[in-house]
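Homework help board

Subject: predicted structure for assignment chain

Our instructor gave us this sequence and asked us to write out the predicted structure in token form, then describe one feature. I got the tokens but I'm not sure how to describe them. Can anyone check?
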Amino acid sequence: MDAVVDKSYQLGSFRDNDDSLRRLKKQAGVALELEFDHLQQAGLTPGLRVLDAGCGPGIVTTQIALRTKPTRLVALDCNEISLAETQRQLDAAAITSAEVRHRNVYDDNLAEAASFDFAYTRLVFQHLSDPLKAMRNLLKTLASGGRLCVCDIDDRWHGMTPELPALGSFLDRARRAQAHRGGNRHVGSALAHLLAEAGFRDIRCTMLLMSTSLIESSDFCDLVFGYKLETIDEAELPEARAELQAIRKSLEQSGAWAGIGVFFVSGAR
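My token output:
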């Protein structure tokens, strides 16, 4: 395995790892029906050979197995805690055919060449210092005509009513902190370009609007902003927590609203 492991998101390295795992699992389950609508548009259909690269806690991996009955399903992650949780999820659902592997998206031998019809990577690319290398490695795993779908965010696609200066300052603080760790909170808008540069064709883009119209404002703040606090340096935490408290308080007002666009960008080999 390649030595490079990006530090933007690694379970086991946070101030509160149990809370981070809880949030990951909750985040994966909050809008599954809508997520699978976008995956179907990207090319996920029953009976395919599927690669889940960066599987995290395995919630979506398990749902892929249950909903699409793939002829083959391989889940990859570079984090041992994530892999153990993925295996627990699969075992709980009595799924015995899925393979769980310790891999890094920067590995040249990420998976067998030309062996998959569909690859999915969910909220991974925002954490990568070399996204193009990862794209090219994923391309190699796909059979001719196979498709990769990348789901990720771009914090510039946030909206909030009433407008609040604290939101902009908090997001910029998180952007700088994640960039320092090698990540990119604006990656969503770059995904189509990255796919094209890596050699993908027939690129398609859809967007899921996650908002307080869909989930409670308290859940929205937890899922959308909670991780960002983990990235911020101790010296900036007091200001960041004050900004987040102002955001939460504003969203408690009658008629308040907040949302963020989640990108689903796919391409074919």
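Reply (TA_rk): Your tokens look well-formed. For the description, you could write something like this. The chain is about 40% helix and 25% strand. That's the kind of observation they're looking for.
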